[in-house]
Design a protein that fits this description.
15 helices, 69% helix
Length: 271
């Protein structure tokens, strides 16, 4: 979503009023995933890796907000995404309008437009990692649920004015691969972002981040990163996901977040 915004409250948006139409139906798999703190951690751990290798990463350095405070940006981005996915129709539309204004202000300040393919790349990450997080947490998703995830985010993209979006899940899968092949590369911005991740997370949390990326990121990203899948790390992640609602699991997921961000993390949803 919007990585240029000022740090915002991470509290969940108010549920739609009784007579208000929700942006995403109450029984939607998208809503279930985006209310789950574990899912959000998986989604943004993976997206942090792919962001770093996207050819549009230089936009993140124009304001300096993401490199200087990557975890704070995580929470502001989550807040904006949840303010759309979990809100009523009117509140969601207001959030989309605000995001568009923020992007336009950044473009005006820099004197150039954010390319359409960069918007699509971010949107496609959300579809991909929302789907993968759902599969990891809930064991499997039906084809209808995967289509629903794609449909929700494509609608969001259309309302943001993003062009040339796919109309179906198969078309999205094709475009996703095309974007990965065309717009994934290691640059000096990649190195700077990973240095920032390591600095803000510390050694152990940083390596946990890398192992989550190894489990979730496409091969087109991993081939540049040098991050390799280790069976023991996959097993450890799988074991945690099975016990995530136990006392041990709740303590573990809180530990994964540095102390200064734990209150913001607690406000993101349920475990």
């Amino acid at each position: 979503m919007c990585v240029f915004a000022k740090k915002n409250s991470s509290a969940l948006p108010k549920p739609a009023c009784k007579n208000e139409v929700p942006f995403v139906p109450a029984n939607s798999i998208v809503r279930r995933i985006w209310q789950d703190r574990n899912a959000i951690l998986l989604i943004f751990a993976a997206a942090a890796g792919e962001f770093a290798y996207n050819r549009s990463a230089h936009w993140l350095f124009f304001t300096g907000k993401l490199p200087n405070d990557p975890i704070g940006r995580l929470f502001s981005t989550v807040a904006y995404a949840q303010s759309i996915v979990l809100a009523g129709e009117d509140e969601a539309m207001a959030a989309i309008e605000k995001i568009n204004k923020i992007h336009k202000a950044v473009e005006t300040e820099r004197g150039m437009e954010i390319p359409q393919w960069a918007y699509r790349s971010v949107l496609y990450m959300l579809v991909d990692y929302t789907t993968k997080a759902g599969k990891m947490l809930y064991h499997n998703l039906t084809i209808h649920q995967e289509e629903e995830i794609c449909r929700v985010f494509m609608r969001m993209g259309l309302l943001m004015g993003i062009k040339q979006l796919p109309a179906t899940l198969p078309a999205w899968k094709k475009q996703r691969q095309q974007h990965l092949m065309a717009y994934t590369a290691a640059t000096h911005h990649t190195t700077a972002l990973y240095t920032s991740y390591r600095t803000h997370l510390g050694w152990l949390r940083y390596h946990m981040l890398c192992h989550i990326q190894a489990a979730m990121c496409p091969q087109a990203v991993l081939v540049h990163s040098g991050i390799r899948k280790h069976w023991w790390a996959i097993s450890l992640l799988s074991s945690y996901l099975h016990i995530r609602r136990s006392i041990v699991g709740r303590s573990t997921v809180r530990w994964l977040m540095p102390p200064q961000y734990q209150a913001s993390f607690a406000a993101m949803g349920t475990i």
